[in-house]
Amino acid sequence: MLQLSRASLRETLSHLESRGLLSIKPGKGVYVTARLPTEPKQWRFENYSLAEVLAMRQQLESFAAAHAAVNAVAEDIAILETSINEAFQAAKRGDLLLVKLCDLDFHAQIIRIAGNRLLQEIIKLIRQPYEQSKTP
């Protein structure tokens, strides 16, 4: 009736179950759940000063730098050098926006090289209030 394969239907049902919309009971059927799906938890920073958030970011980025120093391979180092060189050239031209973008890229690369996915997510969350504080 819907003209889709069983594999597509199974994948869709599995996705809806993972979001909390369905309950699949093998041999019994598929049921719509009574509860509403929950939104992913987001950290709230209203209770913390910007100084506290920045201090934590500094500690986490220091942790990331230490791990990146251990994990980095030649290709990673080349990427970091390129980012630094581009920032330097942009600064010489007075292109402060490009300097900022290079700086953000440099820090993102350090965190990527550190190889800790949880750290990557936490840093993303911690950067939000910092970036929001800089917008007019």
UniProtKB/TrEMBL annotation:
Pfam family, one: FCD
Keyword match Repeat: no
InterPro entries the UniProt entry points to: GntR_C, TF_FadR/GntR_C, Tscrpt_reg_HTH_GntR, WH-like_DNA-bd_sf, WH_DNA-bd_sf
Gene3D superfamilies, sorted: GntR ligand-binding domain-like (1.20.120.530), Winged helix-like DNA-binding domain superfamily/Winged helix DNA-binding domain (1.10.10.10)
Keywords assigned: DNA-binding, Transcription, Transcription regulation
Ranges for domain HTH gntR-type: 1-35
Gene Ontology MF terms in the entry: DNA binding; DNA-binding transcription factor activity
Highest taxon in the source lineage: Eukaryota
The keyword Transport appears for this protein: no
Protein name: HTH gntR-type domain-containing protein
